[in-house]
């Protein structure tokens, strides 16, 4: 598990390999990831949007931006957490993801970024 804390918000990431499939005559590798966002600060916060940079070992990069996470904009009071599961597809058995969440602090009304630690995606059969 990969973890990082930014401004009292702890991000924990677990990854999993989901399998391969053929799409448009090309093999694709499916990966899942579970993210827990834990508010270790003294203020209530809300996640408003996300930014992802997805890389694969073939040097293809994909940028993903959007509101919330899986259709939600969770509000976290001090000590609360939100966990969600999502995934991505790569055209190679290795890759990595990194990014950030745009959040707002309800006490100060200030917006801030919370870093999502870089994490690797790898198909277990390709590690030998």
The first-level CATH class is given as Mainly Beta
Backbone structural class: mainly beta
The parts where pLDDT drops under 50 for at least 5 residues are: none
Determine the N-to-C terminus distance: 21 Å
| Count of separate structural domains | 1
Q: How many DSSP helices?
A: 0
Helix amount, in percent?
Answer: under 10%
Average pLDDT over all residues: 94
Per the CATH scheme, the topology name is Immunoglobulin-like
Biggest β-sheet description:
5 strands, antiparallel
Question: What characteristic shape results from the CA principal axes?
Answer: elongated
Q: Please give the CATH architecture.
A: Sandwich
Which assembly state applies to the chains in this document? Answer: single chain
Number of strands: 9
Give me the Rg, rounded.
16 Å
H/E series: EEEEEEEEE
How much β-strand is present in the residues?
over 45%
What does this entry show, briefly?
The chain has 128 residues and is an all-beta fold. It has no helices and 9 strands.
Describe the structure.
The mean pLDDT is 94. It is built from no helices and nine strands. Strands 4, 5, 6, 8 and 9 form a five-stranded antiparallel sheet that branches. Strands 1-2-3-7 form a four-stranded antiparallel sheet, with no helix packed on it. The protein has a single domain, classed as ApaG domain (Immunoglobulin-like, Sandwich). Strand 2 and strand 3 form a beta hairpin. Helices cover 0% and strands 70% of the residues. With 128 residues, the chain is mainly β.
């Amino acid at each position: 598990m990969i973890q990082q804390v930014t401004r009292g918000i702890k991000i924990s990431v677990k990854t999993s390999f989901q399998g391969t499939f053929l799409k448009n005559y090309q093999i694709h590798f499916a990966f899942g990831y579970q993210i827990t966002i834990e508010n270790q600060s003294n203020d209530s916060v809300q996640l408003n949007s996300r930014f992802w940079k997805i890389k694969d070992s073939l040097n293809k990069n994909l940028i993903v931006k959007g509101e919330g996470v899986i259709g939600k904009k969770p509000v976290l009071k001090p000590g609360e957490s939100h966990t969600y599961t999502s995934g991505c597809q790569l055209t190679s058995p290795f890759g990595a993801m990194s990014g950030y969440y745009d959040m707002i602090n309800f006490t100060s009304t200030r917006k801030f970024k919370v870093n999502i630690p870089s994490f690797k995606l790898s198909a277990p059969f390709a590690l030998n």
